[in-house]
Design a protein that fits this description.
There is one protein chain. With about 120 residues, the protein is an alpha/beta fold. The chain has one domain: Rossmann fold (3-Layer(aba) Sandwich). About 40% of the residues lie in helices and about 20% in strands. The chain has five helices and five strands, in the order βαβαβαβαβα. Strands 2-1-3-4-5 form a five-stranded parallel sheet, sandwiched between helices. Strand 3, helix 3 and strand 4 form a beta-alpha-beta unit. The protein is globular, with a radius of gyration of 13 Å.
Length: about 120
């Protein structure tokens, strides 16, 4: 984990979702960054400084969230991963295992559950 505030990268193709997540997490002592797609997220993770946690939407143009989190697990295994989706029933369980997600949360999310999963994911590494 970073020496300063933990860096959390939020990935969603919907700007309103990114805004809502940022608003939910603004008082959690985190350094929040955003990406609007998997390519942006992978570029950010590769460019440093280290990202402690990636929270990704599932359905996005190009790579979906599970594909993104699998790539992050491969390229940055120390980065925790959480999937956030309104479509949890259509996600392949084997792909989820390959992504090594700390949690899979449904949209709309419960703020307290989201915060608890974030702190658990950051504290468990």
């Amino acid at each position: 984990m970073s020496a300063a505030r933990p860096v959390v990268l939020l990935v969603d193709d919907e700007p309103r979702m990114l805004s809502a997540l940022k608003r939910t997490l603004r008082r959690e002592g985190l350094s929040i960054e955003t990406a609007s797609n998997a390519s942006e997220a992978l570029a950010r993770v590769a460019s440093g400084p280290p990202v402690d946690l990636v929270i990704s939407d599932y359905r996005m143009p190009g790579r979906n969230g599970v594909e993104l989190l699998i790539a992050i697990r491969r390229d940055s295994p120390g980065t925790a991963r959480i999937l956030l989706s309104g479509w949890t029933s259509e996600i392949d369980p084997a792909a989820l295992r390959a992504a090594g997600c700390a949690a899979v949360l449904s949209k709309p999310w419960d703020d307290d559950a989201l915060k608890a999963e974030i702190h658990a994911a950051l504290g468990s590494r």
